[in-house]
Amino acid sequence: MTTKTTQTVDAAAAGTWTLGDRTVNRLGFGAMRLTGSAAFDLGSSRDREQSIRVLRRAVELGVDHIDTAAFYFSRLRSANELINRALAPYPDELTIVTKVGPGRDASGAWLSWATPGQLRGQVEENLRQLGRDHLDVVNLRLNGPGPLSDHFGALAELREAGLIRHLGLSNIGPEHLAEAQAIAPVVCVQNRYGLASRPDRSGDLLRICGEQGIAFVPFFAIAGEGREGGAAPDGAGDDDAVLAVARAHGATPAQVRLAWTLGQGGHVLAIPGTGNPDHLAENVAAGALRLTADEMALLDAAR
Ligand SMILES: NC(=O)c1ccc[n+]([C@@H]2O[C@H](COP(=O)([O-])OP(=O)(O)OC[C@H]3O[C@@H](n4cnc5c(N)ncnc54)[C@H](OP(=O)(O)O)[C@@H]3O)[C@@H](O)[C@H]2O)c1
Q: Is position 267 within any domain?
């Protein structure tokens, strides 16, 4: 068992990046775990007051970048409703990023990927739930190989109409980025990528985004292969290298995974997801953890 970093650290310790005209701290927050510890498990509703406290504490700790979606809900909890309840009226500096494309019906069952014509309804659903009249950033989340032009074009029209400030992409390959950029600017790419799981196409996008000054926002940085099911308990299943680096810094394995993620480049933003206040403080504190080149190399060779 490793020592947990207890010192209070502000998210600004991780440094900043820009999403269009929005400046955000590189250590942000993912809202998917607020509704239940296992994502998309309808029955695993989390304590409502605790989720609200986690959101408010995140902002107190300097988090100004929250990732969400209308389809993050369990039977009794909705991530967007929790964000609205906890944080509205929203601080000017808070950037809320949502995603459209996938959708779930009221029973929680997944719907077919949205048609271009259905995207406006998904954007408006986010606006209603969050209580806003525009969305800071909307990611078009692909479910398959594409093409995406008609969908991205529909979102670009909503951007022109003032419903959306900036556009991003999620779950894409490098070819999709170029296809979308022919239609409208892309400020971020959100793909699965972490120390434990590094799909090649995400690695390519990490590099391409860095070259073009686009934010790369990996998900499952902590959960790794556990993905929707969540992370293993502290230390369980962690590679020896992760445990050794954690011990050397008096940090937890999750903090090392986040520090490794932030170490991939100044354009990489972390959005760790949690509904646990202790994990939140730990995750924000990871923004101050600096790994040496040797430690990064050791971790690069690990999983
Ligand atoms: N674009 C997409 O397709 C997509 C897909 C998936 C996720 N996302 C976004 O990315 C965000 C991050 O993904 P994620 O939440 O699935 O995974 P994650 O941040 O990699 O890990 C979350 C899991 O790790 C646990 N955890 C968090 N902090 C921890 C800590 N300090 N120590 C030990 N365990 C810890 C959480 O449980 P506790 O809640 O109990 O702490 C949860 O089970 C999501 O919240 C969501 O906003 C986007």
A: yes
